[in-house]
Design brief:
globular; alpha+beta; about 120 residues; 5 strands
Length: about 120
Amino acid sequence: MQRPPGSRRPIATRAAIALLLLAGCATAPPTEWTVVRVRDGDSVIIECAGLRVPARFADLDAPELGEPGGPEAKRLVEEIFLGKPIRFRQVAIDRYNRPLIHVLDPPLPGQRPRRLKD
């Protein structure tokens, strides 16, 4: 069935596609995962093999950009992650159908470094 021009896939369909693509990228070497954009102190855009997916840190609840500390939280996440490879484990999907990720490397601020297994 052809969709009308400008229509979008249902949210459930987009979420399912993102999950399938994330699952496929999960077997890629960690250096293929890169943070390409920081939205705020706990949300980023990650890229694997040309696919960009919005994600949220599962272990961090930062203030929103309009709240006190929000811009500083975003700058800190940019310093640590922007343009750099990351390793993570997906732990859930949030209410906006974004993967919730537990970052393994580099560690989040306040998180103890973990020994990584390849």
